[in-house]
Amino acid sequence: MRLKNFIIIASSFFLLGVSQPNPEELTSTCVACHGVDGNSQVGLWPSLAGQNFNYLKKQLLLIQSGQRSVPEMTGLMEKFSEKELEGIASFYSNKKTNIGRASKELVDLGSKLYYVGNLEKGIPACYACHSPKGRGNYPAGYPLLSGQKTDYISKTLKDYRSGVRQYSDQSAIMVSISYKLDDKEIAALASFINGLH
């Protein structure tokens, strides 16, 4: 009887182990754009390493459902269950973020906008939602910004500004802020965020 119980229990542990998603397999397609360790080598693609789990999971679900349009990912997300998307989010959220370098010419303006904002234009300080070191706000689901590529941040802010990127309450906040930013301010913020740590 004990042997029979042991076999049943051991088999159930084996089955549990088999059903757990393998992060390396789940992310095998992701590496082409987001890098093996989640640090993108391509300026226009976001780095996922160290990203807030809640934010990353929400974005994956929005992309999968079609609420957030990312043409490059169309079709890639269909095969994943919610549990697998959580596995992907967990995998990348536990990776180390690589930090870039801010342009010396833009660092003063970028720093001022990030930490103080621009009261005359009604632009709040970025750190209020994204933290002083750009680590984001985990409970609120605000994303990590630190180390994101300059081109990616610049494109994202311009997409918010033009209304192209608008799919949630959080994106509505960014649309209203980005609308007030001019190209020089976007360039300065993007550069500063790339080197923020």
What is the CATH level 1 assignment of the domain at 107-194?
A: Mainly Alpha
Please, what is the average pLDDT?
A: 90
CATH topological fold name of the domain at 107-194: Cytochrome Bc1 Complex, Chain D, domain 2
CATH superfamily of the domain at 107-194: Cytochrome c-like domain
Sequence stretches where pLDDT stays below 50 over 5 or more residues: none
Main location: periplasm
Protein name: Cytochrome c domain-containing protein
Domain Cytochrome c: 17-96, 105-197
Keywords: Electron transport, Heme, Iron, Metal-binding, Periplasm, Transport
Produce the secondary structure layout.
Elements: H1 2-19, H2 23-26, H3 31-34, H4 53-65, H5 82-93, H6 107-115, H7 127-130, H8 150-162, H9 169-178, H10 183-194
Helix pairs in contact: 4-5, 6-10, 8-9, 8-10
Short summary of the structure?
With 197 residues, the chain is mainly α.
Explain this structure to me?
Its main location: periplasm. The chain has 197 residues and is mainly alpha-helical. It has a domain at 107-194: Cytochrome c-like domain (Cytochrome Bc1 Complex, Chain D, domain 2), CATH 1.10.760.10. It is 50% helix and 0% strand. It contains 10 helices and no strands. It has helices at 2-19, 23-26, 31-34, 53-65, 82-93, 107-115, 127-130, 150-162, 169-178, 183-194. Helix 6 packs across helix 10 (183-194) and helix 8 (150-162) runs antiparallel to helix 10. The chain starts with a helix and ends with a helix. The mean pLDDT is 90.
